[in-house]
Poly(U) specific endoribonuclease (Trichuris trichiura), 303 residues
Amino acid sequence: MRLAAVVLCLIFVCIYFKHVHQKNQVDEPDYDEADLDFLKIRDSEIATTVKLMRHLDSSRAKKGDIVLNFQGKTDPSEEIDRAPLPLFTRVNESLLNGPTYKALADVLTIFREDVHETEHWSEEQLKKIDHFLELMMSTNPFKIAWEFIRSRDLAPRDSEHMKSLLFTIWFGLYSRAEHSLGSSGFEHVFAGEKRDSIVEGQHFWVRFYQLEKAGKINYKGYIVARPELSATIHYDWGKCKKAIGGFLVGTSPEFDFSLFTLCFLTKRGSKRCRFSLEKFPFGVTSFKIQRRPYIATTYPVSL
């Protein structure tokens, strides 16, 4: 089983490099909606794993670190701004000085917002990705997630092969716009992307907060509110619109990265991960790119 996991990882890496060097064959990606029911992983197993990850997430916000102002309720089709004020009233900035937050911030600088622009990463930028992945793998939430997916023979057991797998599924480049390798799972989920007049992805609270603080996001109201836990919202990023978007609130980079990795490898497709945070039911919906191992999207939902 261990050998099979290593071979699977090497296949993913080979596919990635083959794809990167065949830019003349770039196509629009299709989401693979096939589920992973054949793995027979129970919701209760995921819930138990996530509960332990949450308990050991020492980098997450403490009570009072974040104050939200949800304001008016809206819906995805509404154009009226129901929220004259920002969503984030207060964030304890010292929280963002933690090593995993800083490493994530460094990685976010390498991406181009427009999916029509091809990504070109320098050696220095690749080092930022490598440092981020090593840091993620050293955290308790990731160790818990990794232990579970290893126990189901869904990931390599050694660190180097696991890091290669993470690089492939999260940073493998593909196209969301014709003839440009301008997207990856990580950029889509953690940074967010612009395609024509719409916002795609952007499912990490710190990214939203920092863009809003810089005056680049206009929050227009909430669709589902879970105070101190999550926000499902409607907003504009510059001239681009996000009809419905959302993220967990106050979680650390390592928790979200580990949670999304866990759910992508165990419960993607038409069936989602299910778990609870502070007794509220949540899920994570994940899809991969069809015929490729890359993350297309993965995002939290309130159930």
